[in-house]
Design brief:
Blueprint lengths: L11 E7 L2 E8 L6 E5 L13 H4 L4 E5 L20 H14 L5 E6 L1 H12 L4 E7 L4 H10 L6 H5 L5 H7 L2 H12 L10 H11 L2 H13 L5 H12 L7 E6 L11 H6 L7 E5 L5 H4 L1 H12 L2
Parallel strand pairs: 3-4, 3-5, 5-6, 6-7, 7-8
Antiparallel strand pairs: 1-2, 2-4
EC number: 3.8.1.3
GO cellular component, one term: membrane
Pfam families: Abhydrolase_1 (PF00561)
Length: 304
């Protein structure tokens, strides 16, 4: 069994009793420093931050958290995405951070973690000092793109199908399924960007049936008629925007490749009209494929 302790030197493993069961995190950096919460993406875990977290911990109290259903955090059962709606997960994470003593914090989220992050910042703006979003556009924008270009990001509608069909398909060979996604979304088209120790942690989680179900429930929550899109639509109709400083990092070889609208433009016309945008020469996995450029952008933003 992989433990990943050596990926985060000086960090302490934490088990936090919270809403929806136990949550796993690693924490490092001075306890008196500004708290910085890192939320990972699909199909990964907190381990994706291992090349950035030690450096960020020089100036912040860094908490790298496993999302509900991912890594080592609890994976409660759910139907139709209910337990994995980003509004619900965001509220649970606020409670987890309170139990760690952090009422207000800085926040960075990649991929699915980015979706939880911007929902948390919209719903509880007083909690978030600064927000960094890595390689996503709003869920409503994502579905507009998929509906305009059928076949684009095919895993979204595929994993959002009713249970148990996608769970069964993935469960036949989860390593093949998820490793194929890692390869296709990486600029190099292979697994060379991923530390073998991190890959071992990803594989350990994504082969567990209840976690496969949790991943699909995550996508059902973000499905075409799911609660995540409904929340976006309601907020857009009400003209709600993010009130804190926002940084959008976009990969040149995945998110912004051949797209009709750059990620920063999508955010500026929706939830973050004053967002700062930086393009990273990377595939989707910025923190692992382009750690130096990603770290420099985050340090500059959170150091302000």
């Amino acid at each position: 069994m992989a433990d990943g302790d050596d990926l985060f030197p000086g960090f302490a493993p934490l088990w936090i009793e919270g809403p929806a069961g136990r949550w796993f995190a690693r924490a490092g950096g001075p306890e008196e420093a500004p708290p910085l919460l890192l939320l990972h993406g699909f199909p990964q875990s907190h381990a994706m931050w291992h090349r950035l977290a030690p450096a960020l911990a020089r100036t912040h109290r860094v908490i790298a958290l496993d999302l509900k259903g991912y890594g080592w955090s609890a994976a409660p059962d759910s139907e139709d995405g209910a337990a994995y709606a980003k509004r619900r997960v965001a509220a649970e994470i606020v409670a987890v951070m309170e139990r760690l003593g952090h009422v207000r914090f800085r926040l960075a989220g990649h991929d699915r973690g980015g979706r939880v992050a911007y929902r948390l910042a919209l719903d509880a703006p007083g909690r978030v000092e600064r927000l960094a979003l890595l390689d996503i556009v709003p869920t409503q924008v994502q579905w507009e793109r998929i509906e305009a270009h059928p076949g684009m990001n095919a895993h979204w509608p595929s994993q959002a199908r009713p249970a148990p069909e996608p769970e069964r398909e993935i469960g036949r060979d989860p390593d093949a399924y998820f490793e194929d996604l890692l390869r296709r979304w990486s600029a190099a088209g292979d697994l060379s960007a991923f530390d073998p120790r991190a890959l071992a942690l990803y594989r350990e989680a994504w082969t567990v049936p209840e976690r496969i179900h949790a991943f699909c429930e995550d996508y059902r929550a973000g499905g075409p008629d799911g609660p995540d899109r409904a929340a976006d639509r309601a907020d857009l109709a009400d003209g709600r925007t993010l009130t804190m400083p926002v940084l959008v990092l976009a990969s040149r070889h995945y998110l912004d490749k051949d797209k009709p609208e750059a990620a920063i433009d999508a955010w500026r016309r929706t939830f973050a009209p004053k967002a700062e945008g930086i393009s990273i020469d990377s595939g989707h996995f910025l923190a692992e494929e382009a750690p130096q450029a990603t770290l420099a952008a985050l340090e500059a933003f959170f150091g302000q």
